[in-house]
Amino acid sequence: MSNKVALITGITGQDGSFLAEFLLEKGYEVHGIIRRSSSFNTGRIEHLYMDDLIEDMKLPRKINLHYGDMTDSSNLIRLIQKIQPDEIYNLAAQSHVKVSFDMPEYTADTDGIGTLRILEAVRLLGMEKKTRIYQASTSELYGKVQEVPQKETTPFYPRSPYGVAKLYGFWITKNYRESYDMFAVNGILFNHESERRGETFVTRKITLAAARIAQGKQKKIYLGNLDAKRDWGYAKDYVECMWLMLQHDKPEDFVIATGEMHTVRKFTTYAFREAGIELEWQGTGMDEKGICKRTGKVLVEVDPKYFRPAEVEQLLGDPTKARTVLGWNPTKTSFEELVNIMMKSDMALVEKEDRIKKAFD
Ligand code: NDP
Ligand code: GDR
């Protein structure tokens, strides 16, 4: 059992919640930063601080939560001083690529300068030798791809305000490592999904809709670019790699990916199949439709409102370095298993939603 102290920014997000569970199981004292919000934003981590649930899960500890924000330097400095973390996982970000076109300045502040604020806090407090820092970098750095598959040495070409903000985060992390001899590393993670994925990212939007359509609670789903290709892994497998990077004997950057790529169309076909619906595709481009083979009903339509001003058409990662240096297994959960996990969870969730609604009728 570890007696290390970890601080997770973005603990209420998909990755933060899986990472918190992972570290608690290892015996870490886990601290997380949450934002003040007018409605609850702790749904993914409630089970990690409620005493009765902690007992059920047999976790040695519970998480400690602190209010804060990536845009508030003094708050970050105070928290890091108080918590004295051995490891900081900087996962907080405005993480939606399409939204970053609507909120470019906020995205730059949170995702780019926010990273600098963490690094500076550690430096100002003289904790460079004590605290190891993990930076959540992204395959969006590759954007308009210069090489397939993408590896640690592939040149970057971001295609969104989000990608550009994360580019700053990547380089400032590397710069502080080289300038101040800090253990600060970038995980260049390709898309990873789960039953906890935010509902506006394409995979979760599809699995929720497929579950609702299969249960007669939604008529159809509107999507954007069906030809976009992504290297989709399972978030639970990826957080282990974040931890492995901080346990490594030297600070290095790693690509984390499965090495397999699929289209949005294929993900949709598989998800609907899991829900008992066989789709066939007709038409092309904006007129393409996903039709139920059995009933002939149109269940999937393209809506240009989901297109992006600049699109990342395809991403495929090469996880060789993570496999050989860290001993990480990139294909622990296959693409088919990932779709299955998400569909199972959303079928149950949609069923439960209905029961809750009925109870209030
Ligand atoms: P989520 O969007 O699920 O979670 C983002 C987290 O950041 C939430 O806890 C959110 O809080 C918090 N946050 C947002 N803005 C601020 C702010 N200004 N101050 C403090 N906290 C803030 O993202 P994921 O868990 O999917 O991703 C984790 C990280 O990894 C992100 O940095 C993302 O950009 C990066 N990444 C993700 C990939 C993926 O496929 N999932 C791939 C590559 C990189 P709240 O709950 O209050 O909104
Ligand atoms: P991405 O994820 O932009 O890769 O960023 P997202 O799931 O939003 O999009 C993936 C691809 O699907 C296409 N697409 C749609 N996307 C959304 N959200 N909604 C739709 O209706 C839709 N239809 C088609 C998109 O155009 C895109 O090509 C995620 C985030 O988690 C980032 O934080 C992270 O850095 C990267 O993955 C790696």
CATH class of the largest domain: Alpha Beta
Number of domains: 2
Mean pLDDT comes to 96
Major sheet attributes: 7 strands, parallel
Instruction: Please name the CATH architecture of the largest domain.
Output: 3-Layer(aba) Sandwich
The residue fraction in helices comes out at 40-55%
Give the amount of beta strand, in percent: 15-25%
Work out the helix count.
11
Cofactor: NADP(+)
InterPro entries: GDP_Man_deHydtase, NAD(P)-bd_dom, NAD(P)-bd_dom_sf
Catalytic activity: GDP-alpha-D-mannose = GDP-4-dehydro-alpha-D-rhamnose + H2O
GO biological process, one term: 'de novo' GDP-L-fucose biosynthetic process
Features:
plasmid; 2 domains; Rossmann fold; binds guanosine-5'-diphosphate-rhamnose; four-stranded mixed β-sheet; lyase; GDP_Man_deHydtase; NADP; 11 helices; 361 residues; alpha/beta; binds NADPH dihydro-nicotinamide-adenine-dinucleotide phosphate; 15 strands
